[in-house]
Amino acid sequence: MAFGAHDSASEVSAPIQPNEKPLLVVVVGPTAVGKTHTAIQIARALKTEIINADSRQIYRGMAIGTAQPDQTERAAVPHHFVDFVQPEDLYSAGQFESEAIEWLGQWFRARRTAVLTGGSGLYVKAVLEGLDDIPSDLAIRASLKERLQMEGLEGLVNELRKLDPVHADRMDLQNPQRVVRALEVCLAAGRPFSSYHGKQAFERDFDTWVVGLRMPKEVLNERINQRVLHMVQGGLEAEVKSLQHLSDQNALQTVGYREWNGYFQGQKSREEVVAEIQLRTRQFAKRQMTWFQKMPHIHWFDAHENDANENILAALRVECSRRGWQLSDTPSRD
Fold it and tell me: d(Cα 192, Cα 186) in Å, to the nearest integer?
């Protein structure tokens, strides 16, 4: 069927046909690069909905510090897997894989497309490729946690660097829970934690089309700095203070939250906290780009260009045309 035909069966929002494979459009990139805005534009054009793949935006009560889509953005396009887990509850990438794949299976019974977006590389990998069955050992975990309390984090980080330098280079080494978990796997399995992330991908019942957003380092750094200031002006301090009783939980071992501990104890100024959050966020963005640049089959776009989203939609229109689907020129405002 020719692209541009007006047969309803060619509309990208039409029900999936028996001979078709649905398409998951994925938007990745570092924090503050504009993923949410781009994902919304794509979802509106496709007349579909969005799955969040950010491992911190899943938590309730953390809307400001994790830059969750606001109510206006969620009203424009429904977002799933946002703001649904209590901060004191553990939620793994494996759980996300299981629940997101189940959601997509239901959705794709009637729909041709969906959008997945987020900056958590492991969450994205979980949906696109699947995760290996990673071992656990509660005795080793308990021992590592005891060492953490007795010796501090630095010794565990140094051991992880020796046992798994690949994973250590791309993870948040200031997150005690993640360091403990990575070391637990290394010690329990006798092999690097990163070795569980490189096996052959599981075959999915849908195709993927991945958009990567990037921009010059100096531009992204300034966007990060301004975003942090906006968060603080928007009430980040009060949000973190309301969660102080949970400060030892994994959810709160997050950039934007843990930096306030010294402030509340009278050891840091507010200005020092803001500067530290900005620095840690820039470092986090660098790790994100390291992860995503190693992902295959990404269509990269320069997000700082004024016509970036137009270029993305034009490329997506070509992809839809290849499938015999028609993508409208004007995004839906329904």
Answer: 5
Contact 196, 132 (CB under 8 A): yes
Same domain, 36 and 65: yes
Q: 41: which 2 tokens?
A: 């534009």
DSSP per-residue letters across 314-334: HHHHHHHHHTT-B--SS----
- Domain edge (last residue) among 160, 178, 197: 197
**Same-domain pairing of 163 and 269:** no
- Dump pLDDT digits (tens) for 174-224: 888 889 989 999 988 888 988 877 656 678 999 999 999 999 999 999 999
Q: Which residue has the tokens 């290849």?
A: 322
Question: Same domain for 115 and 159?
Answer: no
Give the strands of the sheet with 113-117, arranged side by side: 79-80, 50-52, 113-117, 23-28, 207-214, 298-302
pTM (2 d.p.): 0.85
Q: Which helix (H) or strand (E) holds 6?
A: none
Question: What residue type is assigned to position 293 of the chain?
Answer: Q
Domain residues for the domain of 244 are 20-132+199-322
- List 263's β-bridge partners, or say none: none
Question: How many structural domains compose the chain?
Answer: 2
**What is residue 302's three-state secondary structure?**
strand
How far is the C-alpha of 329 from the C-alpha of 331, rounded, in Å? 7
Mean pLDDT for 283-287 is 94
Do 123 and 225 reside in the same domain of the chain? yes
14-41: burial string, b at 16+ Cβ within 10 Å, e else:
bebeeebebbbbbbbbbbbbbbbbbbbb
Confidence label for 8 from pLDDT (cuts 50, 70 and 90): very low
Confidence at residue 151, expressed as pLDDT on a 0 to 100 scale: 87
Last residue of a domain, one of 148, 166, 197: 197
Asked if 131 and 195 count as a contact pair (C-beta separation under 8 A), the reply is no
**Tokens standing for residue 32:** 């503050």
**Residue 289 phi/psi, 5° resolution?**
-65, -35
Task: Calculate helix-pair angle for 35-46, 308-322, nearest 10 degrees.
Answer: 40
